[in-house]
Amino acid sequence: MFQPSPWRADFPAIAALQRQQQTYLDSAATTQKPQALLDAIAHYYSHGAANVHRAQHLPGAMATQAFEGSREKIAQWLNAPSPSQIIFTHGATSALNLLAYGLENEFRPGDEIAISALEHHANLLPWQQLAQRRGVKLVILPLTAGGMIDLDSAAALIGPRTRLLAVSQLSNVLGTWQPLDSLLAMARAQDALTVVDGAQGVVHGRHDVQQLDCDFYVFSSHKLYGPDGLGALYGSCRGLGRLQHWQFGGEMVHTADYHVASFHPAPLGFEAGTPPIASVIGLSASLDYLGGLDTKAVLAHEAALHRQLLRGLHDREGVRVVGDPQAALASFTVDGVHNADLAHLLTDQGIAVRAGHHCAMPLLKRLGLQGAIRVSLALYNDSDDLQRFFEALDKALEMLR
Fold first, then answer.
1. CATH 3.40.640.10 region(s) of the chain?
2. Which tens digit of pLDDT belongs to each residue from 213-239?
3. Are 141 and 166 in contact (CB under 8 A)?
C-alpha cells in the first residue's frame, strides 16, 4: 500500500498550512514546493548571484552552467531531441503569446486556426487576437457530453485551410485527457502547425514530445512543483524554423548597429533580457526531486485519491460533477447553491479550493454555468485531506439549504 506521508514531509508549506488548519486542494492553480527547490534557490542567492551568458567571472560562469543544466534537464524530462529546442519564458501564457506573435507572418486572410471549446483563456485569447489582426478564422472544435474534443466534428472542421491547431492536453476545468494522437494526426495531414498546452498535463506522469510529434509544447513551472514566473516552450525543428523574433533587447543579439541588427536562433534569440535565473535553477531542483520518485506509485496514489473524490461527490444529493473527470481534479456545482457562497463557507472552514469560471469563461457559458467549484489534487494530498473537505462540504450545504 502506497504511503504518501514521506512525500508530505518534503513540502514544508504543507506542514505550515496544517498548523494554520488549512487543507490545500487547489494544486491545479499552483503547487506547493519541495524543500529541494527552496534549498537550490537559497544556495544560488547566498553563494553569489550573477547574470548568465554575459560574464567571464566565476559567479557568472557558475550561474550559466546551472542555468543551461536546467535546460538540459527539461529537454530530458520531455524527451526533446536537443536542449536547444527548449526556450525559457515567463509561463505557459507567455509561451503561447510568443507563439501567437512569432508565427503571425505564417497566416493570410482566409486561413483558419483550430482550438477546442474547453481551452483556458491562455490558449484562446492569443489566437483570437491573432485571428483578428490577420483576418483569420478561429474554428472552435466542439466537445462530447463527457468533456472530450469530438473527433468526428474535428475531422470535419480541420481541413485544407487549417494552418494551426492549438489544444490542451488535460482540461483545467473538466479533468479530461484529450485525444491528442488523433487530433495532431488530423492537423499533420493538412500540414498545419500543432501546439499543445501542457500546463495541466505535464505534472501528471511523463510526456514524450517526440512521441506526441507536436510542433510546440508549453508548460508553466509553478504547476510542476517549481517556482512561479517561469515557463518552458519546446519547439520542433520545423516549428522553430518558422518562429519570428518578437521581443528585443539584451542577450538575444548576435550583432547590432544603430540601424540594423541580427539575432541568435533558438533558444537564446527568444530569451531577450535577463531571464528568471533563480527560478530556472529552482525548477531544475524540482525535476531532480520528481525524477527520484516512483512515477507509477505517484500516479497510482493520485488515481486512488481521484476515485475517492469522485465517489464522495457523486454520493451527495444535488452535487453535479461537471463532465467526466479522468485525472487529478473535479469541478462541480450544487443545485440551488451559488458557487461563490459555497466557496466562502469552505474557506471559512480552512478548505482551499477554486471557485468561478477557472479562466475558461467561454466553456462555462457553453455548459450553461456561471461558475463551479474545483477540487484539485497533488502527490502531497491524502485521504484525510478529502475527508476534511467532505465534512466541510456537508456542513456548508446544511447551512445553505
1. 39-291
2. 999 999 999 999 999 999 999 999 999
3. no
In the residue annotation, 359 being an active-site residue is answered as: yes
Q: Where in the chain is the domain with CATH 3.90.1150.10?
A: 5-25+294-400
> CATH: 3.40.50.620, 3.40.640.10, 3.40.50.1100, 2.130.10.10. Which one for 39-291?
3.40.640.10
Number of H helices, E strands in the chain: 15, 15
Q: Which overall architecture, per CATH, does domain 5-25+294-400 show?
A: Alpha-Beta Complex (3.90)
Q: How buried is residue 40: exposed, middle or buried, by Cβ count under 10 Å (0-12/13-18/19+)?
A: buried
Of 166, 158, 81, nearest to 117 by C-alpha is: 166
The DSSP symbol for 266 reads T
Classify residue 254 by burial, with Cβ atoms within 10 Å: 0-12, 13-18, 19+. exposed
Whether pLDDT at 273 is above 80: yes
Asked whether the whole model's pTM tops 0.85, one would answer yes
Distance, CA of 238 to CA of 251 (rounded, Å): 24
Residue 38's alpha-carbon distances to 12, 289, 293, 354, 399, in angstroms, are 10, 12, 18, 25, 41
Given the residues 186, 214, 359, 363, select the one marked as catalytic. 359
Strand partners, 115: 140, 166
